[in-house]
Amino acid sequence: ANAVSGMAVHDECKLKFLELKAKRNHRFIVFKIDEKIQQVTVERVGSPQASYEDFTKSLPADECRHAVFDFDFTTSENVQKSKIFFIAWAPDASRVRSKMVYASSKDRFKRELDGIHVELQATDPSEMSLDIIKGRAL
Known about the structure:
Layout: E1 8-9, H1 11-23, E2 28-34, E3 39-46, H2 52-57, E4 65-74, E5 80-89, H3 96-112, E6 118-122, H4 130-137
GO biological process, one term: actin filament depolymerization
Protein name: ADF-H domain-containing protein
Organism: Citrus clementina
């Protein structure tokens, strides 16, 4: 069976993403692929007050996840802005099959989430440090 084309995206994923994008009532969303039912589901949602550290702590050290983070920042012209990051989290300690499933479903899943500004792939926390996020946002 082809795991790539058969990956479904739960409606809640799109709903929560729209809430984050339009209403700004979430800071981040962590998505998990349930391999048994071949579906992407919402695993965790961060409140608007959640910090970037809260977000990074919510990612498992040994399992892959897709995630979005709404990053607020101030430009050099002192303008408040926000960019939505899509983070493909694939730690080295995760299973090879899991990495393959996440990698092969990423583009299709990302297309379901309309409004992502920056994509980042990370295999360990240093690859998605706040400095890197800031650098990519500007």
